[in-house]
Amino acid sequence: MRFDLAIAIALGAVLLSGQGASALVRVDVDLGGQKMRVAADSGESYEWPISSGRLGAATPRGDFRPTALYPMVYSWKYGNEPMPHSIFFHGQYAIHGTLEVDQIGRPASHGCIRLTPTAAATLYALVSREGATIHIGGAPEFAPPAATLLKRPMGRALELSTPEPVASY
């Protein structure tokens, strides 16, 4: 009985002093700017370019907590693509590294948030140590479809806007 009381008093003292609360990494994703801002209670802060979901494969928006962390995942759904330093936050959606670094800075994924391998490793280490809150907001800007050029006699080209859909009856 005395032992239980001593544990209860010690636990209460820790909770009241605030020292039992763990530090959290704040991850703020701006889909419009294709940027991620990271701030840790330890004082570290970063800003990295990202690649989010492309047209037709939106990245979920809202406030999330990590649900699972894996040093390496291979996506069976997308040809066994490597997803290093994966931080899952909503079902099958994750923040992870990519080898397709030329895609960073514009919407190109199937809905996940991609980072360079170095940035993903840094974020993974921080979140593994401190936990995280993840806020995803904004709306990505998608590049307009390329204009269609038709060749005409005499070497001149006619530029057409995006083709209009044909009505079906």
Task: Describe this entry's structure for a reader.
With 169 residues, this protein is of the alpha+beta class. It has a domain at 43-141: L,D-transpeptidase catalytic domain-like. It is 18% helix and 36% strand. The protein has a five-stranded mixed beta sheet, with helices on one face. It has a four-stranded mixed beta sheet with strand order 5-6-7-8. A hairpin with a 5-residue loop joins strand 10 (148-151) and strand 11 (157-160). Residues 3-21, 146-150 and 157-169 have low confidence and may be disordered.
SSE inventory with pairings:
Blueprint: H1 2-17, E1 25-30, E2 35-40, E3 45-49, E4 62-64, E5 68-75, E6 81-90, E7 93-97, E8 113-115, H2 117-130, E9 132-137, E10 148-151, E11 157-160
Parallel strand pairs: 1-9, 7-8
Antiparallel strand pairs: 1-2, 2-3, 4-9, 5-6, 6-7, 10-11
Helical fraction equals 10-25%
Number of helices: 2
Please name the fourth-level CATH homologous superfamily of the domain at 43-141.
L,D-transpeptidase catalytic domain-like
Q: Any idea of the CATH topology of the domain at 43-141? A: L,D-transpeptidase catalytic domain-like
Cα shape:
globular
Which strands sit side by side, in order, in the main sheet? 3-2-1-9-4
CATH level 1 class label of the domain at 43-141: Mainly Beta
The number of E-state strands comes to: 11
Low-confidence stretches: 3-21, 146-150, 157-169
**Backbone structural class:** alpha+beta
Proportion of strand residues: 35-45%
Name a few traits of the molecule.
single chain, 11 strands, 169 residues, 2 helices, alpha+beta, L,D-transpeptidase catalytic domain-like, 5-stranded mixed beta sheet, globular, 4-stranded mixed beta sheet, 18% helix, disordered C terminus
